[in-house]
């Protein structure tokens, strides 16, 4: 059964890791929608008009590694508050979600705006401290010049902006399954999500 799985949550909550693992487990396609906003944010940093950048974005031009840093993340969160930018990225995400083979999308508004009809919705959280520690380890392992305090500030500033914006704010859909991963290993978090998806598949 081809399903759409929507995975939302704040920065560095583990939604990307979980989504990738779910996609591999069920042989579904995976779209990290944060990369779309990061790609537009990176263009803003280079002086481009964000709306033009969103309208002309080509998925094959997105270089995930180059986009995973705090400056681009902040710029992403700024362009993500522009309703026209979100609108310009909507059709691509919706078309991806309707793939025949099943799809996992992760972001902020997948369960609420992009795919309100998704068969499975997960909302992944973890405490600020745990998220900052994980992201710090990830970025410093890549050789980036980050501090634990700086990473925590980046996450909190983005979460605030993402939650308070008027259009498609970060929030759990009413029918989302909530998963706090603060005390969970990646394997345990993934196992719970696989079980949640299996429950829906078996019921359907
Ligand atoms: O996609 P999102 O920003 O929500 O987070 P992520 O990139 O999946 O996870 C951030 C970091 O936390 C990665 O380095 C993961 O390996 C790690 N992580 C973890 O240590 N424990 C978990 N339960 C989930 C993720
Ligand atoms: O991996 P992490 O959670 O740190 O960030 P991301 O998922 O790559 O998203 C970067 C930024 O893009 C977020 O802070 C949001 O402002 C924005 N975003 C959004 O508004 N809606 C989405 N569906 C995904 C990302």
Measured as a percent range, the helix fraction is 55-70%
Please tally the helical runs, counting DSSP H or I stretches of 4 or more residues. Answer: 10
CATH architecture assignment = 3-Layer(aba) Sandwich
Structural class: alpha/beta
Q: Which regions are unreliable across 5 or more consecutive residues at pLDDT < 50?
A: none
Widest sheet, order of strands: 2-3-1-4-5
The Rg value, from CA coordinates, equals 16 Å
Looking at the structure, what is the overall shape?
Answer: globular
Number of domains: 1
Briefly, what CATH class? Answer: Alpha Beta
CATH superfamily membership: P-loop containing nucleotide triphosphate hydrolases
What does this structure look like?
Belongs to the cytidylate kinase family. Type 1 subfamily. It catalyses: dCMP + ATP = dCDP + ADP; CMP + ATP = CDP + ADP. It is an enzyme of class 2 (transferase). With 204 residues, this protein is of the alpha/beta class. It has a single domain, classed as Rossmann fold. It has 10 helices and 5 strands, in the order βαβαααααβαβααβα. It has a 5-stranded parallel beta sheet, sandwiched between helices. The longest helix has 18 residues, at 186-203. The termini are close together. The relative contact order is 0.22. Bound molecules: cytidine-5'-diphosphate (2 copies). One cytidine-5'-diphosphate binds next to helix 1, helix 8 and helix 10.
Task: For the structure shown, list the relevant keywords.
10 helices; 5 strands; binds cytidine-5'-diphosphate; Rossmann fold; ATP-binding; 204 residues; alpha/beta; single chain; five-stranded parallel beta sheet
């Amino acid at each position: 059964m081809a399903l759409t799985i929507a995975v939302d949550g704040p920065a560095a909550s583990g939604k990307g890791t979980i989504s990738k693992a779910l996609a591999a487990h069920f042989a579904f396609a995976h779209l990290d929608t944060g990369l779309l906003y990061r790609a537009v944010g990176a263009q803003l940093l280079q002086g481009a008009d964000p709306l033009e950048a969103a309208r002309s974005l080509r998925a094959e031009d997105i270089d995930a590694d180059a986009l995973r840093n705090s400056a681009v993340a902040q710029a992403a969160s700024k362009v993500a508050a522009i309703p026209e930018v979100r609108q310009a990225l909507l059709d691509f995400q919706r078309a991806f979600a309707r793939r025949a083979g099943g799809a996992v999308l992760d972001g902020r508004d997948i369960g609420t705006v992009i795919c309100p009809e998704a068969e499975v919705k997960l909302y992944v959280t973890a405490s600020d401290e745990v998220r900052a520690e994980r992201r710090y380890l990830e970025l410093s392992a890549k050789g980036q010049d980050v501090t634990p305090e700086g990473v925590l500030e980046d996450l909190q500033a983005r979460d605030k902006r993402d939650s308070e914006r008027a259009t498609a704010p970060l929030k759990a859909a009413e029918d989302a399954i909530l998963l706090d991963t603060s005390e969970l290993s990646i394997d345990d978090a993934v196992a719970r999500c696989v079980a949640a998806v299996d429950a829906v598949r078996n019921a359907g």
